[in-house]
UniProtKB/TrEMBL annotation:
It is found in: Cytoplasm. The lineage of its organism: Bacteria, Pseudomonadati, Pseudomonadota, Gammaproteobacteria, Lysobacterales. It comes from Marinicella sediminis. Residues 5-331 form the FAD/NAD(P)-binding domain. Belongs to the class-I pyridine nucleotide-disulfide oxidoreductase family. Its cofactor is FAD. The active site is a redox-active disulfide bond. This is Dihydrolipoyl dehydrogenase.
Length: 473
């Protein structure tokens, strides 16, 4: 007899596991199928984010930040060290311990919420049947509702073959055994800048190749230009409008041929990190007769509420349109489960926050000044530098600024852009304001504790109407 479930989720990353728990909370008989295997070859819940993405990269960023503070910044506090050193295997081990704790925690949450879990691959068949392939064999299950949440995988480029020994993808970039003397990075996006920063802080000479002619094109360019200057000070050598033509491993080194302004150059690195973006993961997911279709970009085709062309079959997260962000996937899947339950699940794509966890952090929500100009929207801007913020100075973190953009007539907050220590956390109040269609004046009327970094948000909101206290308007 075929096992039947109210909700079957294929994928156990931030979208799938959150949706599975939410479904079980609502009383649905729920099954989550996931095939991700960790570095030890064992099945591991949490997808890319918890295993080889968001979480491990932040662990390494934190460790490398402590080392950089010791070697470059603690002297201003009167703190000195003799011959500080980094034990890379210990740093990697700490990262692995955090990953194990969090991925194991999901398994415990599944048990607590009575979510059924199958470690293996799921394939959607016609009539909402799912074929599950595990180490024990194959079985067919039936779902009243199916949610496809298989995430994404790294994009490869021609003539650059990943071996995760010398030429690395995001997973390999998290498991380097020793600090490379010279590190090449293809792609000046989130992964490239974050992992490039990790190894630069630990002593690597880092070169970043970016094909686009604009640095951080998705970011507000006032912030992007400020960040570019800071990355240069930090030692990241970023080359825009540069195309890597090939990478070859020779004698334990990586020989990279790249082209800029029509001229080809060859450079040699100890390691090369490939971080040129990600694509939807649909391999082995869909039978030919299941009825679900793909877009020309290889993503699962869905409507605004994540419905596919097949009734009661949904798709969420990185495998569909929209930003490839863990929190977007989580909220999108929660909204789908609420719709299945007859509720009104909702997610506003205009208020999804973005963060790059470099130092300082780059965080934003809403529209950039460039987007508003292109759309012909009249707006006003308020800014405030952290160099004028007392808490930032006390922390020795004066670099960066807050930039708020509001509608010229209504004062509704249209975008918030922060470049600062703890920018990701500072952005949250701006996201809340935008969710409630708040105005810049709303932020300016809120009493912010003193001294805090959040006062910079307050001052920027005041500056929208040219009445900031601690800067010239």
């Amino acid at each position: 007899m075929t096992d039947k479930y109210d909700v079957i989720l294929i994928g156990g990353g931030p979208a799938g596991y959150v949706g599975a728990i939410r479904a079980a909370q609502m009383g649905f008989k729920t099954l989550c199928i996931d095939r991700f295997k960790g570095k030890n070859g064992q099945y591991s819940l949490g997808g890319t984010c918890l295993n080889v993405g968001c979480i491990p990269s932040k662990a390494l960023l934190d460790s490398s930040k402590h080392f950089e503070q010791m070697t470059k910044h603690y002297d201003v506090h009167g703190i000195s060290f003799e011959n500080p050193a980094i034990d890379v295997p210990t740093m990697i081990g700490r990262k692995d311990k955090i990953v194990k704790q969090l991925t194991g925690g999901i398994a415990q949450l599944f048990k607590a919420n009575k979510v059924n879990y199958k470690a293996g691959s799921g394939k959607l068949l016609k009539d909402r049947q799912v074929e599950i392939t595990t180490d024990e064999g194959t079985e067919i299950v039936q779902g009243e509702h199916i949610v496809l949440a298989t995430g994404s995988v790294p994009i490869s480029i021609p003539n650059v073959d990943i071996d995760n020994e010398y030429i690395l993808d995001n997973a390999g970039g998290l498991d380097v055994a020793a600090v490379p003397e010279k590190l090449g990075v293809i792609g000046a996006g989130v992964i490239g800048l974050e992992l490039g920063s990790v190894w630069s802080r630990l002593g690597s000479e880092v070169t970043v190749f970016e094909a686009m002619d604009t640095f951080l094109a998705a970011c507000d360019q006032t912030i992007a230009k400020m960040a570019a200057r800071e990355f240069k000070k930090q030692g990241l050598d970023i080359h825009l409008s540069t195309f890597v033509k090939s990478a070859t491993v020779k004698d334990g080194k990586v020989e990279v041929v790249y082209e800029k302004n029509g001229e080809q150059t060859t450079a040699v690195y100890d390691k090369l990190l490939v971080a040129v973006g990600r694509k939807a993961e649909t391999s082995g997911l869909l039978s030919d007769d299941c009825g679900v279709t793909l877009t020309d970009r290889g993503q699962i085709d869905v409507d605004d509420e994540c419905r596919t062309a097949v009734p009661n079959v949904w798709a969420v997260g990185d495998v569909v349109r929209g930003p490839m962000l863990a929190h977007k996937g989580s909220e999108e899947c929660s909204a789908v489960i609420e719709r299945i339950a007859g509720q009104h699940g909702h997610i506003d794509f205009n208020t999804i926050p973005w963060v790059i966890y470099t130092e300082p952090e780059i965080a934003w929500v809403g529209q950039t000044e460039e987007q508003l100009k292109a759309a012909g929207v009249e707006y006003k801007v308020g800014t405030f530098p952290f160099a004028a913020n007392g808490r930032a100075l006390a922390m020795n973190e004066p670099t960066g600024m807050v930039k708020l953009i509001a509608d010229k007539e209504t004062d509704e907050l249209l975008g918030a852009h922060i470049y600062a220590a703890n920018a990701a956390d500072l952005l949250s109040e701006c996201v809340v304001a935008m969710e409630f269609k708040g105005c810049a004046e709303d932020l300016a009327r809120i009493v912010h504790a003193h001294p805090t970094l959040s006062e910079a948000v307050f001052e920027a909101a005041m500056n929208v109407d040219k009445r900031a206290i601690h800067k010239a308007n």
